[in-house]
Amino acid sequence: MERTIFDKDHDLFRSSVRGFVTSEIAPFHAQWASDGVVPRAIWKRAGALGYLCMAAPEEYGGAGVSDFRYDAILGEELARQNCTGPGFGVHGTIVAPYILNYGTPDQLQRWVPGMVTGDTILAVGMTETTAGSDLASLRTTAVADGEDYIVNGHKSFVTNGALADLLIVSCITNPQHKQWGVSLLAIELPADGVTISEPLKKIGWHAQDTVEVFLDDVRVPRENLIGQPGQGFYLMGKELDQERMLIAVDAIAAARAALDWTLAYCKEREAFGQPIGSFQNSRFRLAEMETELTIGQVFIDRCIADWTARCLSSAEVAMAKWWATDLQQRVIDGCLQLHGGYGYMTEYPIAQAWLDMRWTP
């Protein structure tokens, strides 16, 4: 079905991004996966092309375009070629809004120009080993000391962590109040007392530099506080919806790519003298997945349009994230099965997509 939520400007942007991913990312992604990190040069290239932080005001070098559809297109085109390494979405769609929406004029002036060009790569440290995704059980602390905070703690599963120039961390500034004692601090890297691990060994997303960050008496200026003291839990709750939306968008795009690969494979691969796609069971399964994905795309497109128009509720965002990732799991698993034994071979993109999808539910 034709997608109707994009206009000509979006189509031109998609064409540009698709060319960039095809020529400058996809051919090198396997090497980056081996290295465990994406080179900084590709971030600067993306910045030069205007793909990073498009919502940033023009006065700081951005496009001043607050339209989630552009974020969705960037995510879809990376997912389409299973290029999971570049953390552009984490940088511009997930972390940047904390600064763009709640930053002081000084913070905007200091950080946003580099965010747009790719010279200042963003990461966020929320998850902790002992707390998991329970943001109300954080143990990282920030104790006021004159004009600074002294930060101690540990953050795990930090995406973009090895490359990060600016790390936003959630920390307890008032231990007397669990929910309203959490604040967000931006740590400019490198910094004394910050130790960043080697990229973690994961079953998927091998090119993505996911790390652990250890904070030992790190001195952070009070002027690096994002929002107000004790406002962190509220800000995270508000901004995490956009992260969920991006996950939902990428999930459908990844599933669509997997089905397209599988359709092509089923036309080429023969068994018992005929293409395996001609067998009744294969045709039924392909038709089922095509139907589910068509329905799923219509639903997610409606969510994209409503999110862009600021009229999608948090409950609806959660529905989209759950439903899209659940569909992604089922479709990619079904596609791998249709590849037979070759679905178990990592040289086939379906095998890597199957490994990469495990983090999304």
Our Rg estimate from Cα atoms comes to 21 Å
The general outline is: globular
Largest beta sheet: strand ordering: 1-4-5-8
- End-to-end C-alpha gap: 26 Å
What is the makeup of the main sheet?
Answer: 4 strands, mixed
SSE string, helices as H and strands as E: HHHHHHEEEEEEEEHEEHHH
* Uncertain stretches: none
Mean pLDDT figure: 94
DSSP strand count:
10
Structural class: alpha+beta
Count the DSSP helices: 10
Q: Could you tell me the strand content as a percent range?
A: 5-15%
What percentage of residues falls in helices of 4 or more residues?
Answer: 40-55%
Concise account of the structure shown:
The chain has 361 residues and is an alpha+beta fold. It is built from 10 helices and 10 strands.
